[in-house]
Amino acid sequence: MSDTYDPGNDLLPEDITSPDELENLMTTINTVYIDKLNKSVLVVAEQRQGRISSQSLEAIAAGQKLATSLGDECSVAILGAQGGNPAGELTRYKLNFVFAIQHGLLEHYTADAYIAALQQLIRKRVFAYVIFPHTYQVRDFAPALATRFGQVLISDVIAIHAGSDGAPTFVRQLFQGKLNADYRLTPQPASAPCFVSIQAGAFRASDLVEGKASFDTFVPALAADQIRTIPGDPFRESAHTVDLSSAAVIVSVGRGIRERENIPLVQALADALGAELAASRPICDAGWVPIERQVGSSGQTVSPKLYLAVGISGAIQHLVGMKGAKTVIAINKDENAPIFEVADYGVAGDLFEIVPALTKAIQAAKT
To answer: Which of 63, 206, 244, 267 is the most exposed place for a label (fewest CB within 10 A)?
Structure first.
């Protein structure tokens, strides 16, 4: 087929006689369209019980930034059952389309239904880049979706840079954050969409650009016999787990606290600030603070407005988890501690003198 074929032309060659031949033709059309014309971005947002997740908003911010750098447009898709899809809430942002993918078989998550529904939307509307938040659910189905298009998922991306030829470079970390690796889809231009998931905290939801978006409902062709699994209850942590990723202020404690009996000192500061208490891995491994409050490469990734690090040296494994913080304040007796390299404000001194005085001052200011 000539690459001057117009994808908008509804006329098909007369020798198309089977569904397989039609599918091959449409794949060729999509390839030409992506290669020559299309650089648009689709963000697949995640929702739970009608609420759009904070990580999804961060992924949409990443999608907007990528679309702007490519000179094209960003759209968003949310999957769910009819009447339980919050897609309409996103029409206040600067987006091309907000797609509500609706079907009874999408009421509860299954990988098979999500893959089939998204495959149909992507093939019909044709996108060059498909962006996801890097969540447990996305890790379950997105790699399989990418393989349907002969691609792989570039996962846990922390940054997106424009290359000299205009094609984006995606950055992800290796060896618990010790190395950054650059990934590019090859060949360029690509013949199929590029699939990317965004690490929590890598982009800010506050950077979302407001505007207007068109709303569209997409009903995929799904059948019950396509679903090979029985939907179970959504994944949950233990009942006492705190979602630190949604906390606005976090006070985090490290080995400088010395012993378990001193934890209440930092807890009092967190209470005075109305903050969540968090900790580095050694503190959680010792059982001084619950493991679900660990921040770092093997714990939670956070992006609060204020992150107050008390007695934390700043090992790379910890920095990976809190690099999304808008403002970082560090208290450490070692003035050469790595935490000061990323801190906006630092206090080099004895935390056992500084923290009680700071707590007292905050409490006095609130009365």
So the answer is: 206
